[in-house]
Amino acid sequence: MNPQQLNHTIQGQGPVILLIHGLFGSLGNLGLLARDLIADHTVISVDLRNHGQSFHSDIMDYPSMAADLNQLLTDLNITSATIIGHSMGGKAAMALSNIATDKINKLIVLDMAPISYQERRHDNVFAGLNAVIENKPKTRKEALHFLAQHIELDGVRQFLAKSLQLQDGYMQWLFNVDGIIGNYHHIQSWTNISPFLGETLFLKGANSDYLMPEHQSAILEQFPNSKAHIIANTGHWLHAEKPAEVLRSIRRFITK
C-alpha cells in the first residue's frame, strides 16, 4: 500500500458510499451510519490525514485533504460514489467535489457550511490534548483526568479518548496534535469553489450553529442543486444523537 494512501475500511456490497469523519475523529465515527448502509452499499470509511492510522503531515488544508480522497478513489478504481462528510469531513467532501466532479454521484454534508468560521471553538481541546502529551499518563483513566482539567463535557473527553493508544509505556494520541494545531486556521477557513452541479443535501442539527440561515447564499452559490433538511432536537453530532432520523434522510435522498 502507498504509505501516503489514507487508511480505510471497506464493508458491504453495492453502490459505493464514502464516509468522512470530522476533526479529532477517525473512520469509526460514522459507524452507526455504516452499519445500516452496508446492507445494500459498499461503504468505505477513511481516516483523514493526521487522524487515526493515516499518515501525518505538516500540511493540512482542504485541497490536500480532497486530493487524498480523490487518490484513494482512483487507487480503488471507483468511478462513482456518494460522498458523506461530517463537519471538517463535510468541508473535505465539498472540496472533493471541486476536483472529482465526475466521480461523485451525490453529496451529503452533515452540519457544515462552505464558509470560513471565525470563532475558535477548540482551544480548550488543544489544551487538554497537550496536557496528556506533557503528563504521559499510563492509563486511559489518567488521560481522562488530564483532559477533564480543560474540557468540561464528558462526552467530548470520551470521544477524544477513542484516539488514545498505549505506546512506549504511556498513552499517546493517534492524531497529529502539532499538525492539527498548526493548521487550525486552514481547518476553520474556506476558499469558495466552482459551482458543483450534482445533487447535494445539507443536513443540519437544529440546535447547532454551524449551519445557519445566513449561510444559504454561500451554499447556493457553490452548490446550486442543493437542498437542506433539519434534524430536530439535535446538535452538531446529529449522526450520533439521532442516527435513525439521519439515516432516514440519507436513504430518502440517495434512493430518489
Automatic annotation (TrEMBL):
Gene3D superfamilies: alpha/beta hydrolase (3.40.50.1820)
Keywords annotated in UniProt: Hydrolase
GO molecular function terms attached to this record: hydrolase activity
SUPFAM superfamilies attached to this UniProt entry: alpha/beta-Hydrolases (SSF53474)
Keyword Heme attached: no
Listed name of the protein: Alpha/beta fold hydrolase
Organism name: Vibrio rumoiensis
Domain AB hydrolase-1, chain residue ranges per copy: 15-243
Keyword match Hydrolase: yes
Pfam families for the chain: Abhydrolase_1
Family annotation (InterPro entries): AB_hydrolase_1, AB_hydrolase_fold
